[in-house]
Here is the input.
Amino acid sequence: MTATTTTEPSPWRIAVPSTVTLTGIWCGLLSIAWAPYRPYDACLALIGAALCDMIDGRVARLVGARSKFGAELDSLADIVSFGLAPAWLAYHWSLAPVTDRGFDPWLWMAFAFVAGGAIRLARFGAKLEGGGATDEFEGMPIPVAAMLIVTLVMASHEVDLPQLREPMVMGTALGMCSVLMVSRLPLPSYKRFPSRTAQIVFYGLIAGGLLMLFLRRPGGTVLLGFIGIYLGRGVIRWIVRSLGGAR
Here is the structure.
């Protein structure tokens, strides 16, 4: 009897989805570079990173190149594009202009966001290695947290809401995201869908928001509302489960 061996994909196959992942890192770097001077463009760069994050795994499955290397690279890309970059954007856009002291409390809020994202990614990676199910996320995914910050910035520009730039608003958003990322809040996975219809509706809403961005309409505001619905649905499900378990 011969032992069964798992054949690793060839380096050339792995390079295909890895290129998509690296493109996402490049988008994150662009956002960091643009954040102090072109915040709206920095937001668009992070949306580009989110699109890369959505398709790199699908590209890997399409070409038969799923690998441990790809998973690790994807996790590292996430901490750059969805941890450091949005925290840097939020700090420069809202928090840094009001800070002229040696001790910077707002910088600590940005750090909390990055730290929460790092913990969330580490926990998610450990769960995958342990063979945990991914039908439902445990805690707020770091790309969703990043898009919440991004769409707040975009909504302020699109619908003329300067109040969203107030340090208390952005600081609260960063703190809320950091807590939700390390929480046990159950959220629906956008990588697996209960039905084909749900998948079509999900991607249709995203495509609609992106089309509005392309047409110079308030697409960021639409995406912000979509994120709010997604989080609200998760909170309602958690409350219902908690009440059901208490009976």
